[in-house]
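Lab manual, section 2.4: Encoding a predicted structure.

Procedure: take the sequence of the chain (455 residues), apply the prediction step described in section 2.3, and record the output as structure tokens. A sample record is shown.
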Amino acid sequence: MKNKITIAGAGLAGSLLSVYLAKKGFEVNVYERRPDMRKENAGAGKSINLALSTRGIHALKEVGLYDEIKKISIPMYGRMIHSQDGHLMFQRYGKDDTEYINAVSRAELNNSLMNLAEKNDKVNIFFNERCTGVDFKNAELFLHNEITGVDSGVRSEVIIATDGATSAVRMEMLKIPRFNFSQEYENYGYKELTIPAGTGNSFLMEKNSLHIWPRGSFMLIALPNLDGSFTCTLFIAYDMNLAGENSLEYLDSKEKVHKFFEEMFPDAVELMPDMAEQYMTNPTGTLMTVKCHPWIAENKVALLGDACHAIVPFFGQGMNAAFEDCTCLSDCIDKYKGDWEKIFSEYEFLRKENSDAIADLARENFVEMRDLVADERFQLKKKIESHLFKLFPDKFIPKYSMVTFYRIPYATALKRGKIQEEILHELSEGISTEIETDIDKATKLVNERLEVLFP
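Recorded output:
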């Protein structure tokens, strides 16, 4: 069993992790509950398109996969804000065109990662294998094959569970005394829609932007696909008693849906002639945050990715955080050379605080995306923020940039972001343009509040 590792789950994190481990000489067997999605239309679990950014790119580069994944990605340089009257406003993400996020289809990315993983003869992926239990002391995973009906047990040196937000391995860990677990659903769901490609697979909106229709308590977003289409996602409250007509509960007929979209997203409706039919046919997705502790059992079984820290998608960091888990675990393996107690202990210590932080940041960013991006005061603060970043590039880094374009720990980004927001609030008081910013006051605030804590 030495140098043999079992991974539960062949999703994004499991497929990437298998490559990391194989490159270190481990024999890796990956067991996936679903059928092989490359051969059957089994879906990719969550259906929201993904935003690949610096942390995820770093992991892909470490294992030599980024060049292949880049071929199925579309760069997005900023947000394109759609007002209700059809006016468009572009908000750049980074300081220039070198800083962008990448739109990528979850299914295409998962397929590519599995293909690339299987090119290594040390990786084997088995499908239709549902986890039915775990022997933590002996690192044995119990499985039931959904096609043959055969039950089996697989032993290895360690087990790493990358089996998602509803992790079967984590469910077994709930039986362990003093295992802490929280699962919190948002009062928001989502509906996925598609804006089709134009003639010759042309894009009917700006290709290199993440499109947002912010409407206060709800929003529509759209990400580009390689075939010229856009995947749109409506995020909206469930309950009518809380949100009235702006709720999933109220929008229960084609007539209501069409009226709602005509009023709230008229320019999007023009591009989706079958919008109401899509809405009524497509399933409703749920949004939840998962936190738990410990992530390790018997120093032989560990959780990774959504299995231990599922988050809402509003900072585009779910996949990137899971990929960063892989990077961190890889570093710990290199550091402690086969001592799994030390490997897992340090991995958990380094990642737990940061995974909690990105969960909080993601929730905060939902409010920003659906409401604040269209607010004049918010726009002024963003302009001041950009100005301060140019003046103090090593001290005042925008929170979005810290999370998306740097590998600054999420916990540090959360702490610095709160302080910087206080500074921006003080500097924006009583002015109407960023040109009026009191630079002497800004310098004093940055030095007093940021340099002391984050030299």
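Check your result against the sample. The CA atoms of residues 380 and 433 lie 6 Å apart.
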